[in-house]
Amino acid sequence: MNRLYRIAVSVCLVGLLLITGCTQAPPSPFEQAQIESTQRTATPAVAEDATQGSEFNKFFPSPEPGYERVYTQEKKGFAEAKLIKDGQDLAMLAIFDTTSLPSAAAKFQNSPNQVAGYPAVEIGTTQSAILVADRYQVKVLSRDPSFTAADRQAWIAKFNLEGLAQLP
């Protein structure tokens, strides 16, 4: 009797393992979101005709004595560099191709301000930007309180803006 009981329990456990092990688990919420997002016809994050970030590097200003320029990011449609003096991050210098985000260019349309002959805007208290050739946003962001709006505008003017305007 005891032996028969053990065999029955063993058969039941094996059957239970087979039944629960072979059933498919429902997709997790993350898997479901991935499925839904890939099935949509979403607009790509970067426009297909955006300029390669490596093309922008030659338009960044050369570092002056006492300053260092360190490239930090380069991808399609964007390039960025740090401006460093005495080991201190003073500013971020960036060029962005607005074909990927046309609303980024729209903010320049009614701007009465100009830097180096291009429409300019101040974004908050730490960012200055211009729009070159109705396409390329050149931006300088203060990373140190001593780096003022006048400093940002002066560094924007040091970019090779004429060369940038000639990009196809």
UniProtKB/TrEMBL annotation:
Residues 1-25 form the signal peptide. The keyword Signal applies. Keywords: Signal. This is Lipoprotein. The lineage of its organism: Bacteria, Bacillati, Cyanobacteriota, Cyanophyceae, Acaryochloridales.
